[in-house]
């Protein structure tokens, strides 16, 4: 069984940036799968690389069992394709940007180790302000809404307080460690002599 690595963290932590850089660095390594979320927003809307879907198409996928997980946030719907199950069954590390609201379900269904990408509060506020999408008050309220992780789920942390390259270095190290430890915990097949 592989390892599901849900990526979570506060807005402005650089999750999408670091995941894109890690995908670039590890893309040739078949042990790693970087999931493209299905989102009910156009591809041209910017942000993360995602699979755009209309509300109708998303609902049809959800009703047909096409998602391992799906949720709603910020007026959009997000889904993780069920195809991750084949990758997990093949022993791969599957990295997906998940909502904290589905972490307990993920841990119940799959071998899971949560990856928290974070940064100091002041840096988060500066990054969000640079986006220009929210007022200072909105940013303050967003950063005050800290959501706890469900208890008992193994986790690892990447502090993204430097350049994107430095943060990606840290992320790649954590992912390689996770692959190593996951492979050590797999039952070994005995060799016949």
Mean pLDDT: 88
Helix coverage percent of residues?
25-40%
CATH class category name: Alpha Beta
The SSE order reads EHEEEHEEHEHEHHEH
Give the number of helices.
7
Q: Which second-level CATH architecture applies?
A: 3-Layer(aba) Sandwich
Q: Globular, elongated, flat, extended or rod-shaped: what is the shape?
A: globular
Spatial separation of the terminal alpha carbons: 26 Å
Low-confidence stretches: 187-193
Beta-strand proportion: 15-25%
The domain tally reads 1
Q: Report on the biggest sheet.
A: 5 strands, parallel
General description of the model:
This protein is an alpha/beta fold. The chain has a five-stranded parallel beta sheet. It starts with a strand and ends in a 9-residue tail after the last helix.
Short overview:
This protein has 193 residues and is of the alpha/beta class. 39% of the residues lie in helices and 21% in strands.
């Amino acid at each position: 069984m592989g390892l599901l690595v849900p990526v979570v963290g506060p807005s402005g932590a650089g999750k999408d940036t670091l995941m894109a850089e890690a995908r670039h660095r590890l893309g040739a390594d078949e042990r790693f799968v970087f999931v493209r979320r299905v989102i009910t927003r156009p591809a041209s809307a910017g942000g993360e690389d995602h699979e755009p879907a209309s509300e109708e198409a998303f609902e049809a996928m959800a009703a047909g069992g096409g998602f391992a997980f799906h949720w709603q946030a910020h007026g959009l719907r997000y889904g993780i394709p069920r195809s991750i199950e084949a990758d997990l069954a093949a022993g791969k590390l599957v990295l997906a940007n998940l909502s904290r609201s589905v972490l307990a379900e993920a841990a119940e269904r799959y071998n899971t180790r949560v990856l928290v990408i974070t940064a100091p509060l002041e840096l988060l506020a500066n990054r969000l302000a640079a986006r220009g999408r929210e007022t200072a008050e909105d940013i303050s309220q967003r950063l005050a809404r800290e959501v706890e992780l469900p208890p008992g789920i193994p986790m690892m942390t990447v502090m993204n307080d430097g350049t994107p390259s430095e943060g990606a270095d840290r992320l790649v190290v954590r992912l390689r460690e996770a692959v190593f430890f996951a492979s050590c915990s797999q039952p070994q097949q005995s060799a016949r002599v």
